[in-house]
């Protein structure tokens, strides 16, 4: 028998994760022929030490590494050039011109980069890393089967995953401490429970949707939906995340000061090769052959190292 007080507590738990029945409306929709107009092509050296040369817009388009076909946007790693072992292969990293301090962030993709040595990610980042924080919505390496979602904080304000209330998310906690430095940048991670959330499993399922709900008062929630299970309200561009069920990952504002640790974030989509994570001991334990730096020379390995994106959208609460 449930007392009214018990029901009240249950309601508090639900609304603590996400605002009840809050519908969101489109703020920015990145799709189709205008997609690249709102993004900057990063051309600096890879901060993760990867074996890539990031191309500018003109060069990337000329090489077929960045293009729009109909309403679909493709971001690819070079898979035709001859590159020596340990050399650098051309790739693409783009950053949104706009910055955000909250909202519902959505990527719908039919394919993500796969292959040994690859390290694809869709993430957001604030100024002066790690001070402004980082939110990794989609990330993984080599033969990883499930998506890894991570928050990186860089201030003295608390930020951890609430491991005492694991029914608030369906994934598995890998590390609960979000504080990151240049020397220790693992952050606080949750591994998705589904093998269709990353790499070949994601692609073979026809892709799907990744969503981040950034609510400064409640916390960070992340979902992955297979193509056949995308909520109809999201398809209709009037999403109500409170109806989506338990997220794959949740970082409660009760144990993380969201607004103090995460602000002025730009979205980033990229694929690097090897680097500090994919090319470390993780490569050796992944089942991939040889050395990561040797794999760089195998052009055919990168034939499917591409993002095929239907759209990226940012929503804000409907007034």
List keywords for this structure.
319 residues, alpha+beta, eight-stranded antiparallel β-sheet, 18 strands, 33% strand
Number of helices: 8
Beta strand count: 18
- SSE string, helix = H, strand = E? HEEEHEEEEEEEEEEHEEHEHEHHHE
Q: Sheet bearing the most strands, described?
A: 8 strands, antiparallel
Low-confidence stretches: 1-15
Helix residue percentage: 10-25%
Task: Write down the Rg.
Answer: 19 Å
Structural class: alpha+beta
Overall mean confidence score, pLDDT: 94
Explained architecture:
With 319 residues, the protein is an alpha+beta fold. The chain has helices at residues 4-17, 57-62, 199-204, 232-235, 258-261, 275-278, 281-284, 292-295, and strands at residues 24-30, 39-41, 52-54, 66-69, 72-76, 89-91, 93-96, 103-111, 118-125, 134-139, 148-152, 172-175, 188-191, 208-215, 219-226, 249-252, 266-273, 306-317. The strands form three sheets. Strands 1, 4, 5, 8, 14, 15, 16 and 18 form an eight-stranded antiparallel β-sheet that branches. An eight-stranded antiparallel β-sheet has the order 2-7-17-9-10-11-13-12. The longest helix is centred in the N-terminal third of the chain and has 14 residues, at 4-17. The chain is globular. Mean pLDDT is 94; it is low at 1-15.
Short description:
By secondary structure, this protein is α+β, with helices and mostly antiparallel strands.
Q: What layout of secondary structure does this protein have?
A:
Blueprint: H1 4-17, E1 24-30, E2 39-41, E3 52-54, H2 57-62, E4 66-69, E5 72-76, E6 89-91, E7 93-96, E8 103-111, E9 118-125, E10 134-139, E11 148-152, E12 172-175, E13 188-191, H3 199-204, E14 208-215, E15 219-226, H4 232-235, E16 249-252, H5 258-261, E17 266-273, H6 275-278, H7 281-284, H8 292-295, E18 306-317
Parallel strand pairs: 3-6
Antiparallel strand pairs: 1-18, 2-7, 4-5, 5-18, 7-17, 8-14, 8-18, 9-10, 9-17, 10-11, 11-13, 12-13, 14-15, 15-16
């Amino acid at each position: 028998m449930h007392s009214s007080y018990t029901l009240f507590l249950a309601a508090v738990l639900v609304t603590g994760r996400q605002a009840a029945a809050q519908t969101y409306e489109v703020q920015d929709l990145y799709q189709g022929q205008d997609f690249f107009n709102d993004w900057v092509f990063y051309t600096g050296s890879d901060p993760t030490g990867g074996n890539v040369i990031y191309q500018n817009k003109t060069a990337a388009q000329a090489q077929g590494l960045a293009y729009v076909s109909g309403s679909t946007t493709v971001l690819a790693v070079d898979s035709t050039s001859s590159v020596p072992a340990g050399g650098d292969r051309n790739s693409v990293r783009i950053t949104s011109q706009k910055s955000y301090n909250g909202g519902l962030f959505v990527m719908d993709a039919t394919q993500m980069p796969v292959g040994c040595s690859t390290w694809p990610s869709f993430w957001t980042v604030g100024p002066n890393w790690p001070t402004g924080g980082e939110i990794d919505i989609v990330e993984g390496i080599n033969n990883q089967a499930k998506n890894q979602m991570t928050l990186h904080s860089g201030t003295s304000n608390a930020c951890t995953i609430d491991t005492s209330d694991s029914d608030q998310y369906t994934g598995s906690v890998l590390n609960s401490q979000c504080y990151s430095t240049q020397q220790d940048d693992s952050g606080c991670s949750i591994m998705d429970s589904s093998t269709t959330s990353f790499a070949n499993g994601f692609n073979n399922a026809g892709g799907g949707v990744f969503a981040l709900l950034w609510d400064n008062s409640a916390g960070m929630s992340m979902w992955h939906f297979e193509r056949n299970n995308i909520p109809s309200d999201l398809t209709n561009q009037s999403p109500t995340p409170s109806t989506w069920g338990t997220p794959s990952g949740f970082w409660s504002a009760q144990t993380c000061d969201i607004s103090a640790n995460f602000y002025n974030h730009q979205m980033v989509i990229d694929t690097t090769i090897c680097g500090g994570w994919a090319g470390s001991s993780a490569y050796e334990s992944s089942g991939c052959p040889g050395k990561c730096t040797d794999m760089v020379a195998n052009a055919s390995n990168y034939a499917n190292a591409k993002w095929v994106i239907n759209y990226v959208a940012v929503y804000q609460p409907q007034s």
